[in-house]
Design goal:
7% of the residues are buried. Strands 1, 2, 3, 4, 5 and 6 form a 6-stranded mixed β-sheet that branches. The protein has 97 residues and is mainly beta.
């Protein structure tokens, strides 16, 4: 999957390995550190959703946000990750000192 023009604010693409061993390409919204020091990727995946209209049913994209363990996330060639926000957990920062 390649980025569309003008959608950089959605975040760069990453590959995420799912528990089913499938790999999906999703948007990386940011990194979040848990209190135990582990890192999690805040991701967004666009899926189809069924929408009822007066003219009948139709499909529309629906974003699903989820967290993936950092060990299951891989970079995608050609993506720029320098602006991806990182949020450290205060307990993890305190333990490190």
């Amino acid at each position: 999957m390649t980025p569309d023009a003008g959608d950089e604010e959605l975040g760069p693409w990453v590959a995420v390995a799912l528990p089913t061993s499938e790999v999906v390409t999703v948007r990386l919204r940011g990194w979040q550190q848990a209190g135990d020091g582990s890192w999690w990727a805040a991701c967004r995946l666009a899926l189809w959703s069924q929408v009822s209209t007066p003219d009948g049913e139709r499909a529309e994209p629906a974003d699903v946000d989820f967290l993936a363990p950092a060990a299951r996330v891989e970079p995608v060639d050609g993506q720029d990750y320098h602006a991806v926000p990182r949020v450290r957990h205060r307990d993890a920062v305190r333990r490190r000192r």
